Amino acid sequence: MLVIKGGQVLGVGIADVLIEDGAIAGVGSFDAPDAIDATGLVVLPGFVDTHRHLVHSPLRGAGADLTLNGYLTELSPRMSSLPARDVRAATLLGAVEALNAGVTTVLSWGHPGASTVEAEALAEAGIRALAGVAPDDARLLADSTGLIGIAVASWGPRLPLADNARDIATARSLGLLTTMHIGREGSVARLADAGLLGPDLHFVHGNGSSDDELKMLVDAGAGLTVTPTSELMMMSGAPVHGRFCDAGGAPALGVDVVLNSTADMFEQMRAALRLERLRGTDVAAGSLLRSASADGARAIGLGDVTGSLDVGKRADIVLLDGFGHLPPELIAGGIVATGGVADVRSVLVDGRVVKRDGVLVDHDLLALRAAVARVARRALA
Ligand SMILES: [Zn+2]
């Protein structure tokens, strides 16, 4: 039993959060022998990053001038032949960077042929994750337990429709989510026409999707993740966060790649917010927190597990410094507009403290970066 004492619980006020067996057991007034003092800190659900290529973590910043085409033709192929030990080390680095930034759940888009070592690295990191793996690997790993679940990562509209149908059928036979990239207009309509859409599908980007197609996703209950920073930096077209909201959807957010984005969700929330302000939409800044938590969890089928501080959910929690001076109603907006990794004081995953008072408990980022330095040297040579 553990209690987070006296924090500003987002949406509640000053309160304690009681944790039992890794789950949130109550929000109110509690005492327990094991306590974390949250005086002056904001207590909020851990961030959910619903699309990240963790294996690219050693290449942070290397794609600042890369377009999507340049990425796909130049950098991505050089990463495709990584030995298993490098895939493992790179995935571990990415997962720990995520935890350090308060991301407690990540959907990791897998590296071809390396599903097992990736799942091992995610487990070693201590993060909650869906490992997005190839359909054949999903069969092998479908019974994964603990914090690591499996999703089928399908190449989507770049492949013939029959291949999409086969991937989705494999995932459905195993009771798993299918996740796929979409870009061009018509990609969603093609799947809809074939009767393949459903709430167990999760799409990423959708920059070229028409308003009608976004509505098709909403009607089908399918999830959509927008990765505003990588889409803008790679010139993929205008991110659809606002258009998906207009269609009645609740978009999720993802980092995608640290080639051109920071490793946290603050950047994604802020980019999405600023794009909406540019469109002339007076969306409340604080509402973007939902995209990076509850709506993200729901988009990848984990809405009953994480994404909020509701009693019964797993205790995936972030304690933020830097906002204790604000009246409660200004805190969520303040976090979205000005928050950053330096504010992430403590992080819990499944009730376990993985970052305490600004320091990672189980991992050393400096050592993890040193372990993959050769990956970057080789890929960028
Ligand atoms: Zn991607």
Automatic annotation (TrEMBL):
<dbReference type="InterPro" id="IPR006680">
    <property type="entry name" value="Amidohydro-rel"/>
</dbReference>
<dbReference type="GO" id="GO:0016810">
    <property type="term" value="F:hydrolase activity, acting on carbon-nitrogen (but not peptide) bonds"/>
</dbReference>
<dbReference type="InterPro" id="IPR011059">
    <property type="entry name" value="Metal-dep_hydrolase_composite"/>
</dbReference>
<dbReference type="InterPro" id="IPR032466">
    <property type="entry name" value="Metal_Hydrolase"/>
</dbReference>
<feature type="domain" description="Amidohydrolase-related">
    <location>
        <begin position="188"/>
        <end position="354"/>
    </location>
</feature>
<feature type="domain" description="Amidohydrolase-related">
    <location>
        <begin position="42"/>
        <end position="132"/>
    </location>
</feature>
<dbReference type="Pfam" id="PF01979">
    <property type="entry name" value="Amidohydro_1"/>
</dbReference>
<keyword id="KW-0378">Hydrolase</keyword>
<dbReference type="InterPro" id="IPR050287">
    <property type="entry name" value="MTA/SAH_deaminase"/>
</dbReference>
<protein>
    <submittedName>
        <fullName>Amidohydrolase family protein</fullName>
    </submittedName>
</protein>
